[in-house]
Amino acid sequence: MSNPLLQNSVLPLFSAIKPEHIEPAIDQVLATNRNSLQELLQQVARQQPDWNSLIKPLEILDNNLSRAWSPVRHLNSVMNSKELRAAHDACVGKLSAYSTELSQNEDLYKAYLHLQQSDTSKTL
């Protein structure tokens, strides 16, 4: 069975989303994002970052997480149940930790700083 939160559909598959899909989907997206961020930062460390090599990939990672988490937040608001609330709540700490990792990531900060100090930043 495929996880509807991980499907690349135009609109969320609300009717197919079950509480048991939530935590595995969020865990998978967070793991993928963390790995992708490491690869991105290694690549950026070897070359001067620009919009396309730093910001665009970060936006894609953020969008992937949002595509999985936003339907969960919405369902928790409009169809709250004990099971859905438990699945939602199990992910809140994970998402908070991920957000903290991003905001405290020194390598990511340095990449942003290099982009800001580059000549290309004047044309953004």
Give keywords.
single chain; elongated; mainly alpha; 124 residues
Describe the structure.
73% of the residues lie in helices and 0% in strands. It has four helices and no strands. With 124 residues, the protein is an all-alpha fold. It has helices at residues 19-46, 51-78, 82-103, 106-117. Helix 1 (19-46) runs parallel beside helix 3 (82-103). The model has no long low-confidence stretch (mean pLDDT 95).
Arithmetic mean of pLDDT: 95
Runs with pLDDT <50, length 5+? none
Largest sheet: none
Provide the helix percentage. over 70%
Query: Strand-and-helix sequence, N→C?
Result: HHHH
Please count the beta strands (DSSP E, at least 2 residues each). Answer: 0
What is the general shape? elongated
Give the class from helix and strand content and strand pairing.
Answer: mainly alpha
Rg, Å, rounded:
17 Å
The tally of helices reads: 4
| Strand residue percentage | under 5%
State the end-to-end CA separation: 44 Å
Please outline the helices and strands.
Elements lengths: L18 H28 L4 H28 L3 H22 L2 H12 L7
Helix pairs in contact: 1-2, 1-3
Please give a quick description of this structure:
The protein has helices at residues 19-46, 51-78, 82-103, 106-117.
